[in-house]
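[stage:ingest] chain + small molecule (zinc ion)
[stage:ingest] validated
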Amino acid sequence: MKDIAQTLNEKAKNLAADYLRTEGELLLLLIEMRRQRVFPVLNYSGIFDYCERALKLSRAQAYYFKSVAEKSEEVPEIKEAVLQGELTLSQARRIVPVVTKANHEQWIKKAKTLPQKDLEREVTAINPKAKVKEKIRPLSLKVSELRAVVDRETEENLRALQDLLSQKLGKAATVADVIAWAAKVTRQKFDPVKRAERSRSVSLGKSPKMGRHPIPLSVKHPVVKRDDWRCTYVSEDGRRCEEKRWLALHHVREVARGGLNTVDNLRILCRSHHKLVHASS
Ligand SMILES: [Zn+2]
Ligand SMILES: [Zn+2]
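[stage:predict] done
[stage:export] tokens:
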């Protein structure tokens, strides 16, 4: 029996060592893929999206790789520590909210030596926001639970809105009512598609001039509506990019080559696909 215990113990330890080594190697590979701008070519928005959809890792795991990889740009010692097996990915991601170029030695040492609870307590003491991970968790088909950390000023703003909304409704408004109200009003005001739908700007019938000029709203709004304010890049397998952030209007035929500010000559691209399209034209 003792022999079996020894053998199985050895085997488990070896596998765990392989597992940690693989974790470090995967981290390094993901950083390299990001540096070489591989994700936009494959039509993934970044490390998180790639880990989750292509590598089938859990959301939590994908998030760890993303946050440690991003932090490693500023503090390369973190990825070194993971690669050398000094830190596990899970230890490394715990110090991401506080580690800097100046204090990395101290934090890497703490991550290596302190029990998880103590480490979390020390990180939270420096950066209270690190304790609560922001999330929206579905409770049923119709409602979700929202969790976020806000500062004093935001809390005061929410309380003031709560008073205003209660007055407006003639009954006590909850914080959830306030968030619903503020989100709706703000979205109506800032959402580019909604703005474009509301827009009354009409083309003055002037034909667009050659050369670089600001894009008039009468041209921009139809483009925003047509492309639904989302990147229009389509990869070889026919998938359209999901990105709705970091978007820009791109001239299909470049301005320098006589391209005009017309609806047909403009399309929406995200930052990484915009770079990709320019690099390959
Ligand atoms: Zn462009
Ligand atoms: Zn894109």
